[in-house]
Specification:
The complex is a heterodimer of chains A (about 160) and B (about 100). With about 160 residues, chain A is an alpha+beta fold. In chain A, about 25% of the residues lie in helices and about 40% in strands. In chain A, the strands form 2 sheets. In chain A, strands 1, 3, 5, 6, 8 and 9 form a 6-stranded mixed β-sheet that branches. In chain A, strands 2-4-7 form a 3-stranded antiparallel β-sheet, with no helix packed on it. In chain A, a hairpin with a 2-residue loop joins strand 8 and strand 9 (about 140-150). Classes of the chains: A alpha+beta (about 160), B mainly beta (about 100).
């Protein structure tokens, strides 16, 4: 028996089950999406893999993503940043700290009147670029800023 | 044991400004104790904020979020007296929900 064929058949059987579960109302697609922690993204140590996991590998640079952040952060344990996407129809925003041991910091989905903006506090191990991606209209946009860190905040 | 989440939700113009502060150690799994033993990761993985029961913000978090996580965001279409609830769940399966009334 061809192992690839077996694998394909198994895949079909599993997706069939999933479709049946959705049809039966056991799994509501929106809920499933929201509850699913992006394990691949959060456990990736390599920025390229993180960008893939948040669909930002081929993202377009955008000046409509505004990152308000300090140029220099004295304490890497708490770096306050504020992110706003001015791209119409933005549904989600992700924040990546390039030089952290696990670069993906957070992903936010906005719905039911929430504006695509978020204020948060990051831990930064060292001076690093911070990457923000935004999904809008089926496309992904990206912006970057560098934050210098005087005292790192991951191991300390 | 978990401690209450502080939620401030205040109408400003046509949007409600929400500030949320959760009480959580957000242990990264990178730190060591005095004996040199690594402290296991313990952090909030998901947060859902709902307005009158409808989700407005759904966040997934990694270990790069500061201790006692703070988030600020804005929601259009809310009114004074509406309920804003915040639920978090951490990587050990612990969870809690708190609610505030919009002022």
């Amino acid at each position: 028996m061809d192992p690839l064929r077996r694998k394909l058949l198994r895949g079909v059987a599993t997706s069939g089950l999933l479709a049946a579960a959705i049809a039966a109302g056991a799994l509501r697609p929106s809920r499933v999406f929201a509850a699913e922690w992006n394990k691949g993204g959060f456990e990736a140590k390599d920025v390229a893999n993180v960008l893939k996991a948040i669909d930002a590998a081929a993202a377009t640079d955008s000046r409509d993503i505004v990152i308000n952040a300090p140029d220099i952060a004295e304490d890497g344990a708490m770096v306050a940043i504020d992110v706003v996407s001015n791209i119409p129809g933005t549904l989600s925003i992700a924040v990546v700290v390039e030089k952290n041991p696990y670069p993906l910091a957070a992903q936010f989905d906005f719905s039911n009147g929430a504006l695509p903006q978020i204020a948060l506090r990051l831990k930064m191990a060292q001076t690093s670029r911070v990457i923000v991606s935004a999904k809008a209209g089926g496309k992904v946009y990206i912006a970057r800023t560098e934050i210098k860190v005087t005292v790192g905040g991951c191991a300390g | 044991m978990t401690e209450p989440t502080k939620i401030q939700a205040e109408l400003k113009g046509d949007a409600v400004e929400v500030r949320v502060r959760m009480a959580h150690a957000m242990e990264t799994g990178q730190r060591k104790d005095a004996a040199g033993k690594t402290l296991p990761a313990h952090f909030i993985q998901s947060v859902t904020a709902s307005l009158n029961g409808k989700p407005v913000l759904q966040a997934q978090l990694g270990t790069a979020i500061s201790r006692n996580p703070y988030f600020g965001f804005r929601v259009k279409g809310a009114r004074a007296g509406d309920k804003l609830a915040v639920t978090w769940t951490d990587n050990k399966g612990e969870s809690r929900t708190d609610e505030a009334t919009i002022a």
